[in-house]
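Before a colleague's protein record goes any further, I have to sign it off. Thanks in advance; the entry in question is below:
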Amino acid sequence: MPDVRLSSPQGKWILLTTVLGSSMALLDSTVVNVALPHIGRDLGADLAALQWTVNAYMVTLAGLILLGGALGDRFGRRRIFVLGVLWFAAASLLCGLAPNAGVLIAARALQGVGGALLTPGSLALIQASFHADDRGRAVGLWSGFGGVGAAVGPFLGGWLVDGAGWRWVFLLNVPLALLCAPIALRHVPESSDERAHTRFDVLGAALCAAALALLTYALIEARTASWAVALSAVAGAVAAVAFVLVERRGKDPMMPLDVFSSRQFTAVNLVTLCVYAAFGGFFFLAALQLQVVVGWSALAAGTALLPTTVLMLLLSARSGELAERLGPRLQLTVGPLLCAAGMVLMLRVGPGASYLADVLPALLVLGLGMVTLVAPLTASVLAAVDTARAGLASGINNAAARAAGLVAVAALPLLTGMGEEAYRSADAFDDAFGPAMLICAGVLVAGSLIAFTTVRRPAPDCPHPECRTHGSVLTPPLEQGAGGTAHER
């Protein structure tokens, strides 16, 4: 049984290293969007390259995150966590030194592999190390400090981009890793799951990542209408079908399909796809809109987006408590509608926009909507499956949110007619931004309708989220299973 107390020196070191590790991934997910215009200008990249700068990371992370947790269970959570931290740092160094867009995109894909190893590992280390009496408080501190890291991300990213340059957005991860890894090796006890399977669904993970990559390529490059695009779309669909067959027939699938026999679980994941597709598209385009069209610096654009994260940090725990009293249906219906209203308000953000009159009201409404829906969304996912599968359900939901975001980043420029050089022209980008916000709003309304018609009040003895405070605007929190790991089967 884990016996480390939070008040002990070792407990504080464990908390520090897990916060540092998770903060690396959270910072990276929030700061890169702010840096995109500068990356494009410096490397002579077109809009497709900027889309891939975001999506190459998301493809490997979404495709491999379930496998990453399983590897930690089998080979040691500390070992895989440290490997992920060092891998992430090495890939970040390559990103920072990239001489062209192609190398940057390849390095971002490698970063995603590291993220898939360290992201589930940080919470798993807390669960496996701390005494049961301190575990809840440790998880709360971990999620709270991680949320602060997510909030600092856009501001820090903007400051670095305007000052030292966009390359330091990636290079910053190197000293963080050099601090994190030795602390983990010295102070974090090794742990594993004796029940973990000896087989790993490598084929399933590869097919999942391949399907995401091929379909993303087809969406990003669809404007060229080439044979390569058509072949990529077909190959992506074939890979997706093959993934489903492997998961259905495999002995140790990373995503056992019988979990979707719960209609509630399937419905909540459909809501997740709608919600996080809209969020992924919004934060990708909003950072560009504020710089390309409104004319703000990277620092001003990054700081402008802070209200959403701050509201999440301040109010997510209370939103979860409200959902426990009222049931999740009301909040999962109202929350997406509030977010949709916030995106409609973003139509006011154009040339000469005022922060107080135009930008801030939209972000406050959006942030309140996110606060309203995220906590009950996670609670509904956990409640829809058996307690022993709660961690697995959370991992699938987290991967679904990431996949939805990368599809939105790939598809929105295509759907709104953005050309390859749109981000270099204020008029061209502004013309496409409005329709993109309306599409995001429409997807959110669809999510609200799904929630209203399908979500039901969970049983009173169902598992509840441990991560009460959440600050990420691009993914729901990862949760562990009761007494086990996030990938226990």
In short: Confidence is low (pLDDT under 50) at residues 482-489. The first helix runs from residue 9 to 43. The chain has two domains: 8-185, 256-457.
